[in-house]
């Protein structure tokens, strides 16, 4: 047998695509669970006898636990088989849906939301490391794109699905409907994921932050963080922009947001091709184009068709970008992908919170133009740091 034939056979043998799709189903249920409360806050708050603001804290607590878990899981898990760990996190996701759906009071509801936060942090911190084990190196961007396809699809359907289920089976039924999907994801992963033994010598507790000593890691994570800050400084306030500046009606608003989410799903399917061809150029081009879109929105904010097209392009680029950054973790830290993934989750979660907060302050006090301008500046900064990261990476 020739060397080429041997390599081809090895690549086919090593590729566990069924496991990739099983994890994608897990991502879909995970993201749907994370954002389900958004469309159910009113009935949820009324039933639990709390304010809508208190009910919304269920999203905040899941984010906080996601950050904490992402920074500690790699050290705490030690030598636990990673397949076992992923299956445990999937069961935790099912348990979260059951606890929230059957919650007798506010504290029980928060407990359920805390469990989904642990799952979010654990799963995403392990995603790059898992992709490396499931498929050959040159297929890792495609595997990560498929993972994020589940993310994009859930982002599109979570709010309307939650609203529909809330109206038909109640908010409790909406959460409980996710439990069978989580169990299906557990069974599929159990059957399709290979055994993934951990390293014999787990990294020390300080290993996550030790990664910052490498200049390429520090610069890359800063670029990634600035990108997400710029993205959410604008996108968090798209609805009030569309309602007060573009002046769309309720049907137009739903259509534009649905188109934005749908374009994001397409973006995740396409981006791996560009990453394989020109990795850093793709990673650099995305924030540059998004900065241009932010500037174009400043000029065309009152024109519905132009805004719809621009936001569609924004959604395509913004949803594709995480695939690039997770691929960067896999390429830059192939031997430390779990620790790097944990650090990446923490950076992204913190940057989303900081970007949306700064964007909100500017939006309220200086107007939407200033918020969109701030977003463009952050995205240009992210592009500049990405360029520096590429030079350090070489």
Automatic annotation (TrEMBL):
Membrane topology according to the record: Multi-pass membrane protein
Main localization (coarse): membrane
Gene Ontology cellular-component annotations: plasma membrane
Alphabetized GO MF terms: transmembrane transporter activity
Keywords: Cell membrane, Membrane, Transmembrane, Transmembrane helix
Pfam families xrefs: MFS_1
Location of the protein in the cell: Cell membrane
Taxonomic superkingdom: Bacteria
Domain Major facilitator superfamily (MFS) profile: 19-394
TM regions (residue ranges): 20-42, 54-73, 85-108, 114-132, 144-165, 171-191, 212-238, 250-272, 279-300, 306-329, 341-362, 368-386
Parts forming coiled coils: none
Stated name of the protein: MFS transporter
Organism of origin: Pseudenterobacter timonensis
Lineage: Bacteria, Pseudomonadati, Pseudomonadota, Gammaproteobacteria, Enterobacterales
